[in-house]
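Supplementary Methods, section 5.1.

A reviewer requested that the exact input to the structure prediction be made available. We therefore reproduce it here, unchanged from the version used in the analyses.
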Amino acid sequence: PPYLLESTLSDMSNPIHLTVAAVICQDDRFLLVSEQSADLLVYNQPAGHVEAGEHLTDAMLREAREETGFDIELLGVIGLSTYTSAAAQITYYRVSFAARLMSDQPSHATDPEILGTHWLTYEQLCALANLRSPLVLSDVERFRKGEIYPLALIKEFPMESSHP
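The structure derived from this sequence is encoded token-by-token as follows.
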């Protein structure tokens, strides 16, 4: 039977902000991007919102390509997190992945909002005062502890075709 949704994001007073992020580690360094948030320069993993109708894994591959220029391979799921921004009064629901680069050189242009990509050691990352959210360090720490679950944890169904 078809599944019916009674409400949409457009008529919800508190829309869900579903995001994805990738922890990419190479030679004991983590790939971060820098971007402007309000008046601050902030650092984050390659991350972003899942678009309507998009699978979580496809969203992650797209966001990594857009923000870093690299194609990535997803290795596993680090976990699910929630974070409420006091400033924006928005709760973010984040699915975090472990990933690796498919090549040593970027093959795509990055979004203009991305100011740069940076390979940082864990110590350098911990010293940053301007992480986009506490999720950045939390995901790296989970990754370092080996908290990586199989991608099969996520079951993505194809979009249903509309029936007359």
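Confidence is low (pLDDT under 50) at residues 1-11. These observations are discussed further in the main text.
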